[in-house]
Amino acid sequence: MSNDALATAASDDPSAAAHVRQFVTFHVERETYAVPLAEVQEIIRLPVMVDVPLAPPALAGLANLRGSVLPVASLRRLFSLPDRSHDDATRVVVINRGAGHGGGPGGGHESTSGFVVDRMASVITAEAGEIEGADGLSASAETDLLAGVIKRAGGMVMIIDLGRLLQRSGSGRAAGGRTVDNAIEFGAATSERGATEGGASDEIQLVSFELAGQEYALPIEHVQEIVQLPEFVSELPNAEGHVIGVINLRDRLLPLVSLRTLFGLPAAPLGEQNRIVVVSLGAASASVGIVTDTVKEVLRVARAVVDPLPDLLSNGGSLREVESICRLNGGKRLVSILSAGRLFAPSQLSGALAVEEGTMQETRGGTEVTRADEEEQFVVFRLADEEYGVPIEAVHEIVRVPEQLTHVPRTPAFIEGVVNLRGAVLPVVDQRRRFQLPDAERNDRQRIMVFAIAGVRTGFIVDSVSEVLKIPRSAIVPAPDLAQDDDNAVERIANLADAKRIILMVNVDQLLSRHEVADLKAA
Predict the structure, then answer these.
(1) Across-strand partners of 388?
(2) Has residue 17 got a pLDDT over 60?
(3) CA distance 487 to 124
(4) Mean pLDDT, residues 390-397
(5) 108 or 440: whose pLDDT is higher?
(6) Distance (Å, rounded) from C-alpha 442 to C-alpha 41?
(7) Out of 36, 103, 270, 433, which could bridge 98 as a Cys pair, Cβ 3.0 to 4.6 Å?
(8) 3-state secondary structure at position 427
């Protein structure tokens, strides 16, 4: 039932005066319920929904309603009724409480929410004498969620108290790309954070990637972001052999370079495993995307294990792009650290960069450009079938999950195990278990995301780290008020309507309770 249909139902009834009220009615199990017509924005079919971890059981999920996040509750669960399979008759009644207090349908997104009903009935008009309070009412529903009843010859229609319903459902305050294998964008925010942390001057951070079986890395301050290789790349005429073409990355053209070709390595087919590392070229404020076989992880290493490239190798000029070598695992793992400045001669990308610069000027002149201070950066990870995001500055590093975690006796029950991370013992939590999701077998895509919670470095195992996104603040809204739990980790929602994605934004500080942080410190 659309807004127009609801409006027609109201206008066609001449008795809609002060002493009568109109209601939308529907069925749940064997009972008939009603809500004031004035507060019903629309009635829709059951949408695709995103599950919210640790949410009240009555919250069925979050949906995208024309660009707004819509929390959807289950009336069956609220009324302590068993779940049943949805069918063609199942509908979601969308409530806009602002619509009933001077706002029109479609307005006041911050007070919009929905609930699932078995099937719709009709719009009815009730006179004041037909409406009684809920005292003494006995029905299959919980009476504290009812505001009253409408007495009819064919039986009673129960009026739902929307305020209590929304509060109980967990939607009382409704809301208005890649691993590090796939992606990580750290940029200036991470570098700035690292400079202020104790001991940061003795460490460097690197983004490592693989090329023809060899591991390379770039200093994190030169890496703007890492994105997936798109399906289509526009070729440039008369470009150097290593220039693959250009792509459109957030309203600017980004030239792409094949590192395999640049290093004289055999060509390999491009596919889903390939990643684009977006590198800043420095003073010119230009960027270039280098295509790698795959991105491995983010490393935080001591400067003591980084050695300059031996003169014997550098004098010939064949390895001019490599500025140093990082020795890991006692020298068993060598990572070649590249110099962003030496990767490209000034003239090598002049044509591609000129195209990029011209396009950026044209974009600025013709359309509004999103300013950096109007965006936030998030690392996006996956758990089960849902996407989550954490602020980029909260991520200390991302590492692979070792083949075996060490289980330490007498550690808190929520700790999955510990790992040795460069000489320090890192407690590790299984994020699936933390969010009460089904366990999953260990696999190569899983990663440990390292955060500092109340000063305690802790790792959380996630299914994969999928990408890093710059998200406009206008697309980020408060999460539904997940009610009774003050420690709920999901505080905001990123609603990317054009991409049909809803990303649950996690507050890292809420991943562990105060008691659990205390247990960690004592362990």
Answers:
(1) 381, 504
(2) no
(3) 42
(4) 89
(5) 440
(6) 45
(7) 103
(8) strand
Indicate the pairing of strand 287-292 with strand 253-258. parallel
What band does 137 get if pLDDT is binned at 50, 70 and 90?
A: low
The amino acid sitting at 243 is V
- C-alpha separations of 316 from 215, 241, 309, 421, 514 in Å: 21, 22, 12, 37, 58
Contact in structure between 116 and 46 (CB atoms under 8 Å): yes
Q: Is the pLDDT of residue 109 over 50?
A: no
Residue 347 pLDDT greater than 60, yes or no: no
- Which of 6-20, 136-150, 223-237, 353-367 has the largest mean confidence? 223-237
The label of the residue with tokens 């996040």 reads: 69
H/E stretch holding 259: helix 259-262
Nearest to 219 by CA among 191, 256, 180: 191
Pairwise CA distance, residues 361 & 446, whole Å: 41
Three-state secondary-structure class, residue 310: coil
Does 481 or 82 have the greater pLDDT score? 82
- Please report the pLDDT score of residue 251 as a whole number: 67
Q: Which helix (H) or strand (E) segment is 375 a member of?
A: strand 375-383
Give the separation between CA 353 and CA 229, rounded to whole angstroms: 19
Residue type, position 120, single letter: M
Return the structure tokens found at 405: 């975690």
Residue 226 reports pLDDT greater than 80: no
Where are the extended beta strands (E) located within 166-293?
Answer: 203-211, 214-219, 223-228, 243-248, 253-258, 275-280, 287-292
Token pair recorded at residue 394: 């909260």
pLDDT tens digits, one per residue of 160-193:
988 888 777 765 544 443 334 334 434 333 444 4
Share of the chain above pLDDT 70, in %: 74
Q: Take residue 106 and report the two structure tokens written for it.
A: 């479609």
Cα–chain center distance at 487: 19
Query: CA angle 228-377-244, nearest 5°?
Result: 25
- Report yes or no: 386 and 51 within 8 Å, Cβ to Cβ: yes
Could you tell me the domains of the chain? 3-169 (2.40.50.180), 187-369 (2.40.50.180), 375-522 (2.40.50.180)
Least confident of 45-59, 146-160, 195-209, 383-397: 195-209
Q: How far is Cα 92 from Cα 81, in angstroms, rounded to an integer?
A: 17
Token digits of residue 137: 């009412």
Residues facing 377 on adjacent strands:
470
Q: 129 by DSSP, 3-state: which?
A: helix
